[in-house]
Amino acid sequence: MHARRADKHAWRKTKNVLVSAATFLSAVAVVAPLALVFFHLVMNGASSVNWAFFTQLPKPVGVIGGGMANAIVGSLELLALASAIGVPIGVLGGVYLAEYGSARANSTLRFIADVLNGVPSITWGVVVYGLVVLRFKSFSGYAGGLALGLIMVPLILRTTEEVILLVPNGYREAALALGIARWKTIVHVVMKTASKGIITGILLALARIGGETAPLLFTAFGNRFWNHDLAEPIAALPLQVFTYAISPYDDWHRQAWAGALVLVVGIFCVNVLVRILTRERKPSIV
Amino acid sequence: MTAVAVIPVKEGSAPGRMAPPSRFGDRAFEWLTLGMALVVILLVFLIGWQLARGSSLAIQKFGFNFLVTSTWDPVAEQFGALPFIYGTLVSSLIALIIAVPLSIATAVYLTELAPLWIRQPLVSLIEMLAAIPSVILGLWGIFVMIPWLRDYPFPLLKKAFGWTPLFTGPIYGPSMLAGGIIVAIMILPIITSVSREILRSVPNLQREAAYALGATRWEVTRIAVLSYARKGLFGAVILGLGRALGETMAVTMVIGNTPQIAASLFKPGYTLASVIANEFTEATTDVYLQALFELGLVLFGVTILVNLLAQLLLKTMTMKSATRAVQ
Fold first, then answer.
1. Fold of the A52-285 domain
2. What ipTM is given for this predicted complex?
3. Angle at the Cα of A221 (from A220 to A225), degrees rounded to 5?
């Protein structure tokens, strides 16, 4: 009797250890692709990331070398355009959800924003194609920027709302007690207090859309040359990586790895910046 | 003094007295922000309207047959979406079979079993995995994952399970199975982080009660945590399904892009999102473009429904745990 009980106890303890080990191995399996992808990016891409990569245009097939300068600049232009659309709408919408409105209507809006976040990014490409490209009969930087900007809206809206809700009510009451109009209180006191958090949200959204390819395939379309007219097709780094990756040329594959490495390093830098910002935010706000 | 106070004063007429604050700025700001918040509703309708408008002719021409026939012939202007719907569903299903156990086990490890010092670094790594763009994972898939799969795991699978129809036929590399695996990698981080949030929202009283009965750590997790969080975890899985259905670039690069319905997972397939990505700019005729718009409409409809379900499940879960925590 006693022995059986001890046996059972030992089995329960063993099971505990086994499950712990299994979950640990799962965690390793989840992180493994990150390590593998990063390892291969550095192995295959690092040798082609040089000065020419950042300063030259793509070379024609068969000519070794060249760079993606136009794609890097194009991506930055598209991100600026997307921010011009996505940031005001997202931030002000987030302010509304946090500061005004009834609880019920707002939870509906929040719900819709979350559902919108789940819409596949290629859908935005198709919609903007119908809205802009078909109408103006040309692929364009504007179309690409619009597609990316619309993806930013629900992302920024939700993060802005969350950080504004973190601002203590005492701040609002203090400002209102001084006779300051409500909107000025919100802009100068509440949003200013939450500004780091709002910027964090914007940066995260930029990091997310900076790697988006699907919505650009038939909006920005890509371009092998310099182009600063946003009404014309424009190059973007992820698009260029895609075009080169599915091409049959070894040279282009090397360039694709280099472009991918630059893109990933850029995105990781933004993420690290965000982490630094949020680390400083905690003591000052909550 | 009282006499002065009684005299009715017109607005702004008394010098040295502050004008009453204008309400105009307040109202304008509230309307402005309301307008911006309403944009999210507008966007949902905009997508639905634009996709329906872009595909109206195709809907009229093919009707319900579009969804159940499998000929995709742009030259003969015959369009059936079945192979793409099949490919989307099968690749997502493979992805879920791989990703769900791994992500939920990782979430359990992160919230219940892991030593405290390891938790934050691991969470950061998972966030970094989530930040890798789809196109880069696809690049890695083409040049690293597929050659490896072709040389090692696929022949093994064929040897072990070749008697089932799932793992028969020649091994090319780009295949439904490769597509499913890459989608699994894409959805691992989101299922893991949402599951982690859900497990963290389980009140500690639950755990303490189980510990008090002498349960081991795993028993606490199983009895008190997992059963409590079941609905929320289901929500996390459905959210992952939504992402899997719409995943585009990485799948397009490894699935083989052949519109066919084949039992063997070694055969190439095609998904809704990848056919749109590949053929949209090549659509030379109106009907072709319309058919592609209709594929977009199907994809949008399915992902909206899946996401609605996921959000509903997650919402009730977090609300329930919030109210319980208050009690």
1. MetI-like fold (1.10.3720)
2. 0.93
3. 95
